[in-house]
Amino acid sequence: MEATTALALSSTLATARRSPEKAATASLRLRRFSATTSLHLRSARSPALRSHRHPSRRRGRAGGLVVQAEMFGQLTTGLESAWNKLRESVEPILQVVNDELVQLMGGEVSDLVFAKSGPTIILLAGLQGVGKTTVCAKLAFYLKKMGKSCMLVAADVYRPAAIDQLTILGKKVGVPVYSEGTEAKPSQIAKNGLKEAKVNKADVIIVDTAGRLQL
Prior knowledge:
By secondary structure, the chain is an alpha/beta fold. Helix 1 packs antiparallel against helix 2 and helix 5 packs parallel to helix 6. The protein has helices at residues 2-18, 23-45, 47-50, 55-104, 132-145, 162-173, 186-199; strands spanning 120-124, 150-154, 177-178, 204-208.
């Protein structure tokens, strides 16, 4: 309806500009079109009038739906094409970044090396939102299946839900969690957590830290 109105208005104004003598006739046509459009809008909104539409109007309405469906299909196709082009241009960049990160971290898969005496200390550091807290619990569960006793240390004092999240995950995997709330310094929490792990004779201590904005 909006597209039809715009086309009719544009055509009427163009006619008036080309021939000033026909301005009065164009104005009359515009008023008639406006009245007809208003009637169509009122009938479309009124349930009583919708039930008494003329068959030709219903066919016109169906034709409008077909046009809208075709336009939507063209828009969808265009968006899919644009997305494919963007993905093709971004994927090589992501691959380069991935390769550089792998090379930076050593480039080879190596087994965990456990300390000969005392707890093995694993500290997770990284950007915000990469999933460090969840990985702490997953790693603890993996080591527990290997027969290692673990302890999680909640040293992320900046994200309000970090300590609660690690505590909940620790309960799920059956691993104790050491925490001192959000008032203590992370370094002090880590030191005290290590002492607690030694008292409990834990094989591995996994320290969760706050996310960084940049590395």
